[in-house]
UniProtKB/TrEMBL annotation:
This is RNA polymerase-binding transcription factor DksA. Residues 95-130 form the Zinc finger DksA/TraR C4-type domain. Residues 22-92 form the DnaK suppressor protein DksA N-terminal domain. Interacts directly with the RNA polymerase.
């Protein structure tokens, strides 16, 4: 599918849900997000390779190690996010993107705009979180 969309295009509830323009809009949004994460990861690798100099002071060394641990945790979360982005891109290819995994209903465009990897509608997500809280509290 080769659909051109204007730079200022925003999906609207006035058009058919997940028409080719909306699919292309979200595909581009997801690809941009994925590329930003990969660029950040490349920068992290470069930074970690540069910072191999041992700090003579133990407090400075501890601070550097703490910063590295935080950076690596952030990168791990982003690695998991890339998996979700790839799954969303596959759903676009399969024509399933934008529909709730639990109910099959369309996910609100505002929700997809804010969280393009969303697989549940807001109502289904809230139910899911309530169930998680109940089982977590047990």
């Amino acid at each position: 599918m080769n659909v051109q969309i204007a730079d200022d295009y925003k999906p609207s509830d006035d058009e058919p849900f997940m028409n080719p323009r909306q699919q292309e809009y979200f595909r581009e949004k997801l690809l941009r997000w994925r590329n930003e994460i990969l660029e950040d990861a490349s920068q992290t690798i470069a930074n970690l390779q540069e910072e191999t100099i041992k700090e003579p002071d133990i407090a400075d060394r501890a601070s550097t190690e703490s910063e590295r641990a935080l950076e690596l945790r952030t990168r791990d979360r982003q690695r998991k996010l890339i998996g979700k982005i790839d799954a969303a891109l596959r759903r676009i290819d399969e024509g399933l993107y934008g529909y709730c995994d639990e109910t099959g209903d369309p996910i609100a465009l505002k929700r997809l705009e804010a969280r393009p990897v969303a697989t549940l509608s807001l109502e289904a997500q809230e139910r899911h979180e309530r169930r998680e809280k109940i089982y977590r509290d047990d």
